[in-house]
Write a structure and sequence with these properties.
The protein is about 75% helix and about 0% strand. It is built from 7 helices and no strands.
């Protein structure tokens, strides 16, 4: 055999995996900002409606209790819907890679192919050409180095939600 050092494919994709991890944290920040902005604006709207109803009508304790219960239910629903559900979803490397490929048509399916092929331990025993597998991984990694993963995120909407959060 040759004396050329063999670098495992999983080690070659470590840079892309790190970039996908950064993208995952950016998506989580996006979910936090959007969820908090929506929840705070709902909270402000509920308080405004409650204040208006309280000003217009004379309510006894039971009615105020019902209003408080309804407000807490709406806020709980909002927290579950806009914060807990999106943040509890796990974003795999493959799912993120597919989103990056959708946003960057140049990639084709090279990034997802490189990630999935790099996980194969012994390509030869599975009837694959190890040389072709290495070339496919190298080609996918090379094209992925030239693009930005962050363009998956809608930064205009993120800035709008951040502004709404600050205003709230």
């Amino acid at each position: 055999m040759s004396d050329i050092p063999y670098i495992p494919l999983a080690d070659q994709t470590a840079g892309v995996v790190a970039r996908l991890a950064r993208l995952r944290s950016q998506v989580a920040a996006w979910f936090w900002v959007e969820g908090l902005a929506r929840t705070l604006w709902l909270l402000l709207a509920l308080f405004a409606v409650d204040l208006t109803l309280d000003w217009l009508f004379r309510m006894d304790r039971a009615q105020r209790g019902v209003m408080l219960f309804l407000m807490l239910g709406a806020i709980g629903w909002a927290v579950i819907r806009w914060l807990m559900r999106p943040l509890s979803a796990t974003l795999s490397d493959d799912a993120l890679a597919l989103q990056v490929e959708d946003a960057n048509q140049r990639l084709g399916q090279g990034l997802i192919s490189a990630l999935q092929l790099s996980r194969i331990e012994d390509a030869g025993s599975r009837g694959m050409s190890p040389l072709l597998v290495r070339q496919a991984v190298r080609s996918g990694l090379q094209v992925s180095q030239e693009i930005s993963f962050a363009n998956v995120i809608d930064y205009q909407r993120f800035r709008r939600n951040a502004l709404l959060l600050l205003v709230a």
